[in-house]
Amino acid sequence: MLSDEKPSVCVLGLGYIGLPTAAVIARSGCKVLGVDVTDHVVDTINSGKIHIEEVDLDGLVQGVVSRGTLRASLMVEPADVFVIAVPTPFGDDHVPDTSYVMEAATNVAAALKPGDCVILESTSPVGTTEKMRDLIAKLRPDLKIPGMTKDIPDIAISYCPERVLPGKILEELTNNDRCIGGITPRCARKALGFYRRFVRGECVTTSARAAEMTKLVENSYRDVNIAFANELSIVADQMDLDVWEVIRLANRHPRVNILQPGPGVGGHCIAVDPWFIIHGAPEHTPLIRIAREVNDGKVGHVLEQASLMIDELPGVQVACFGLAFKANIDDFRESPALKIAAKLARRYPGRINIVEPYASELPAGFEGTDTKLIDIDEALESCPVMITLTDHDMFRSIPLDERSGKVVYDTRGIWPDQPDNLQAVTDLRLAS
Ligand code: SAJ
């Protein structure tokens, strides 16, 4: 491939990151083959549709599939650039599981030819790209492998983490800076040339290990800072203070920027990635570990506070606002909101109602609890107790006069003008 020719690209893993990435690369004019292990995913994409929700992704995929620049398959085919974007979950005791990465690398190895570039994007423990390189070297002894030959290597291997925010993936895929770590500087330069084709943000090169750690550090930084906010919220509950007011005031200091407390930390990134650092250096990560524990512990705190409130008002209907792990998306993976709502539903059968505009039916977890999915208006009409668990804009915009007289537990701080519950509780008791 000459440097001004558009490379052919094979993207392995067509999930929340792989599919948008494949589509954005295809939009830049490269021929892209997306590979996934699931028939349904491959068929859906080949028919120009998508199997996940993400802003504007449907139109983009439909466009690139109909132009013939993106197609999907179960099998890897030869390409100039291979991008691996498969999951890296953790197993028991939070031990990172890189088996999907190694499986993908095995499939790539079989298709490699001199001149190819392999890029790992999956969030991975430090050292994974080198392990992947060692595996490729074992499977392809005919190729000169970077870091293992004195000659110019036949292929390039790099690590380049994605850092996009669900709900803004397409925008951030193009505009965010990228950190590209090569097994060697030459590998990094090869990958840099590729990313410059479709990334407008700055692309900075480094080593594969530094890039791996950078990704883990970014999400751990956020986790630690959210843990601080969550710890403050528990202290504020105990001291009868409004934590959001205190944070707002403290953030007026020019060098203070406290994040927002909530019912816990969800999603597949921030609650997972810190464990990859902890696992790599268990004796030197007390702060990162305790932050994880504080954020996971917040779910139990909210559950207890909500139960105290519900216990005070026997027989009264309760509306839980939100199941998604964060605002304005339909993603319920590892959602603290879902965990809390499902536990409340089991604790109070027949009394819990769910308001989740991003769900058409209740997800798993509510079986046998007689829980209903209702809309905002129904909740406002029929539920005297309201618990906010997700900060969807649609909830935030409910005006005070529609919430007045309600007993509210607002775990997200979306209704700062809500009066305290004393009067509402008294009125409810008198009415019953
Ligand atoms: N949360 C709070 N308080 C806050 C901010 C977030 O409780 O002040 C909660 C959210 O409600 C949610 C969780 O944290 O439950 C995570 O949400 P998020 O918006 O912070 O992050 P994710 O998981 O959607 O995406 C993160 C992003 N990382 C950072 O912001 C450092 C994203 O850029 C990464 O690409 C993504 O992880 C990833 O794939 O790793």
From TrEMBL:
Alphabetical list of InterPro entries matching this protein: 6-PGluconate_DH-like_C_sf, NAD(P)-bd_dom_sf, UDP-Glc/GDP-Man, UDP-Glc/GDP-Man_DH_C, UDP-Glc/GDP-Man_DH_C_sf, UDP-Glc/GDP-Man_DH_dimer, UDP-Glc/GDP-Man_DH_N, UDP_ManNAc/GlcNAc_DH
Location of the UDP-glucose/GDP-mannose dehydrogenase C-terminal domain: 319-417
Swiss-Prot/TrEMBL keywords: NAD, Oxidoreductase
Stored SMART domains: UDPG_MGDP_dh_C
Gene3D superfamilies hit by this protein: NAD(P)-binding Rossmann-like Domain (3.40.50.720)
Origin superkingdom: Bacteria
One of the record's GO molecular function terms: NAD binding
Gene Ontology BP term (one): polysaccharide biosynthetic process
PANTHER family attached to this UniProt entry: UDP-N-ACETYL-D-MANNOSAMINE DEHYDROGENASE
Entry's family note: Belongs to the UDP-glucose/GDP-mannose dehydrogenase family.
UniProt protein name: UDP-N-acetyl-D-mannosaminuronic acid dehydrogenase
Source organism (scientific name): Parasphingorhabdus marina DSM 22363
